[in-house]
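Worked example 4.2. Below are the chains of a multi-component assembly; read each line carefully before continuing.
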Amino acid sequence: MLLGDALMSRRTAFRPLVLLALAFALWASPATAEDPSVELTIRDHRFVPETLEVPAGKRVRLVISNADPTPEEFESYELNREKVIPGNGKGIVYIGPLDPGTYPFFGDFNQSTAKGRIVAK
Amino acid sequence: MFASARIVFRRALKAALGSRDQVRDVLAVGALAMSCACLAGPSAGAQDLKVYSPTVEEGEFGIEARGNVTVDKNRDKAGAQNQRYELEYTPTDFWHTALVGELTKAAEGSLKYNVTAWENIFQIFPQGKEWLDLGFYLEYESAKQRGSADALEWKLLVEKNFGPLTLTLNPIFEKEVGRNAEKSTEFKYASRFKLRLMPQVEPAIEAYGDIGEIGNLDSSSAQRHQVGPALLGKFHLGNASALKYEIGYMFGLTRDGSPDGAFKWLIEIEHHF
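Applying the procedure described above to all two chains together yields the following structure tokens:
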């Protein structure tokens, strides 16, 4: 008897869980091409660089490092993203695919200094 | 007439979202939400009314209080309450955990401490990496009332962004365990369509339902289905702290299983370390 059969016959409560796990495994298993990656640093409550260029029409992996000891929240309404980066920590945000244009972002905990923009070309 | 309404709906969506691909995505995820709802039992009293996002924030510590109270012309369905109080922490970028206390009140009863629960959310992908953002919610509920059973509740947390709109779906499965447990598994759902207008004010439409026991569904009029407007928002308090709120009013959609309405509220103070 397969593990899945055993689980389903004994515990109907876990049947949806098993089915979802199988569906998820099928969905997640194919290898995908690497998304282009860009890096952004938070230092002295500012984003460095303040302007990031990314390719339009592609999903982009944005790696945000926080060099400050305090947390910062990367936030952009235009990109529909918000992510808290712990102090001296790192976070990953996926954005796009974007139409060509400029997309502002800011640090929610230091809005007067932490500002930047992503330019999709 | 239905076809005309569908065309008008499609045009409105296209006007709001701007592209045919986004309209297609909204309709696809909407169809998923409807299929969840159509699986859907009777439910007495107030239920927990909260939609969970799959995205968690590492280092977040929070204290949350929420609840809802039913409104109805019939005294046996009016004034039922559900209140939950949570102490939350997110130790990693994929795991959020909380200790929960739940109080409930039947329409003509008194408020009683009902459940102590341990809640966990697991974010599966970094936000935006896949076509859908996915997470998984697992909660163990320890019953505090004599004759009640402990329960295991799990939810799939699904979220999709369409420009400024965010659709969140939570199919919910609940199974009683241990002493006094019934063998059946209950299916519920929670969903929200939110407009990211500004941090302080985000209007939304929410829907909740209790479809009853899987494999032994009740008549449609005895099922609980509620839908209504909500407002969400966040105010920064300085020093990486924020105050979050939610308010809403959910209209009952079924004659017997739903109250005429339910007023819901949430307030949370969070701090990031």
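Take a moment to check your reading of the output against the notes. Chain B has two helices and twelve strands. Confidence is low (pLDDT under 50) at residues 1-9, 29-44 of chain B.
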